[in-house]
Design brief:
alpha+beta; D-Maltodextrin-Binding Protein, domain 2; Carbohydrate ABC transporter substrate-binding protein (CUT1 family); transport; SBP; signal
Length: 421
């Protein structure tokens, strides 16, 4: 469903590289603009320059024509930027004082450039957005952006194979997920019960387990990655490998997860909404009747993580008023429904999910339910470095090269050295 996801993953690697070489930030540790003013009513006028990445950058020029029609005195100039070039382009623009008026900003990039963003007007209400999405807009205690679209991860499972294994409903608890994976293999003939996160982005992809076990990633002053809750969560993760329900050598090349799901070799995985279109394309007509999605199984809670993109206005903008009015328009529930129908980006506005185009699709509605408890990744500029270190330790754990306790201890030591930024 998310056609930009693979590009976004590549971009995340670029971010990590930049941060590790010390050139990923300008002055992001500064508090940034602190004063917020009211936007008030009125029409937008003048020129608004907007940068957007990937598919969004391709679709926005036509989409914002409606805004221009509603505000005859405004002209919106959209510049589409490749994901893999965007981080460097933003960094250069900020350093040179040549930013656009506003931009689409990946939620994990907010702290990288936060001091360059204007503070959200006091009367631009975000109370109706998913809490995790709003959380991702906070930089140093201030609202530095407005949620635009959201992403989270849920359980996908083959209903036909589940029925063959004796399951007529999705697993509700961690124990049930483990048992269902076992039954998928022993009773339904699957090669593996479930695909567990592996390769790049595996640590972030596994966060639903510690988060659902009551763990936190920081205590505000340091990383907390080897607590008892974390250890218990990753012992659970590792149990799928030690019990031979997940493949430690799983193919992590693009399209492999979808192929194994469609063939039935691995009838469960935990992924984002973009998988829906991928499965429809690979599985063909009628395949949507062979699988379903469900909220993540509960331990202490059922908590996934919230991703997506926000809308920001740069403090150097020459037309803040019109830029914020465009942000306000793009944030309106009706506009968000229209944007979903255009792009398939999931709305950040909870009210938008009441529209039949979203609420009428049971598998899609699951994402809306999961987003109610989803948590944004830590708003720290060093998060990408810590997550990359987590990928390395998880690989050692799933391959049996180190214990869970040793792996998390090593991760904590690396995180302590990296710091919170």
């Amino acid at each position: 469903m998310r056609r930009t996801r693979r590009l976004a993953a590549a971009a995340a690697l670029v971010v990590a590289s930049l941060l590790m070489t010390g050139c990923g930030r300008s002055d992001e540790s500064a508090a940034g603009p602190a004063e917020a003013t009211a936007l008030g009513s009125g029409k937008a006028s003048g020129t608004v320059t907007l940068w957007a990445m990937g598919t969004e950058g391709e679709l926005l020029p036509e989409f914002v024509k409606t805004f221009e029609q509603e505000n005859p005195g405004v002209d919106v100039e959209v510049t589409a930027i490749p994901w893999d070039a965007a981080h460097n382009k933003f960094q250069t623009a900020i350093a040179g004082g040549q930013t656009p008026d506003m931009a689409m900003m990946g939620s994990t990039w907010m702290t990288d450039f936060g001091s360059a963003f204007a503070t959200v007007p006091t009367d631009l209400d975000t109370s109706g957005f998913f809490p995790g999405a709003v959380q991702s807009t906070q930089v140093n205690g201030r609202a530095a952006g407005v949620p635009w679209y959201v992403d989270t991860r849920v359980l996908y499972y083959r209903t036909d194979l589940a029925a063959a294994a004796g399951w007529t409903k999705p697993p509700a608890t961690w124990d049930e997920l483990h048992q269902m994976a076992s039954d998928m293999k022993s009773k339904a003939g699957a090669e593996w019960g479930i695909r567990m996160p592996a390769g790049n982005d595996s640590y972030q992809g596994s966060l639903w387990m510690p988060l659902s076990n009551g763990a936190t990633l920081t205590d505000g002053s340091k990383w907390t990655l080897d607590t008892p809750q974390q250890v218990e969560a990753y012992e659970y993760y590792n149990s799928f490998f030690t019990d031979k329900l997940s493949n430690p050598d799983t193919d992590i090349s693009p399209g492999a997860a979808e192929a194994d799901f469609v063939s039935g070799a691995t009838p469960m995985f935990i992924e984002g909404p973009f998988m829906r279109s991928q499965l429809a394309k690979l599985g063909g007509e009628g395949f949507d009747q062979k699988y379903a999605s469900a909220v993540l199984p509960t331990k202490v809670s059922s908590t996934s993580f919230s991703g997506g993109a926000n809308l920001v206005v740069f403090d150097q903008s020459k037309n803040k008023d019109a830029a914020w009015r465009l942000v306000q328009w793009l944030s309106d529930p009706k506009t968000q429904v229209s944007w979903y129908q255009t792009s398939t980006d999931l709305p950040a506005s909870q009210q938008a999910w009441q529209d039949p185009s979203l609420s009428g699709d049971a598998n899609l509605a699951v994402f809306g339910e999961q987003l109610k408890t989803a948590v944004a990744p830590p708003a720290n500029p060093t998060w990408t470095q810590v997550a990359a270190a987590g990928d390395t330790e998880l690989e050692k754990i799933r391959r049996g090269q180190e214990s869970v306790q040793d792996g998390l201890k090593a991760l904590q030591q690396q995180a302590d050295a990296i710091g919170l930024g």
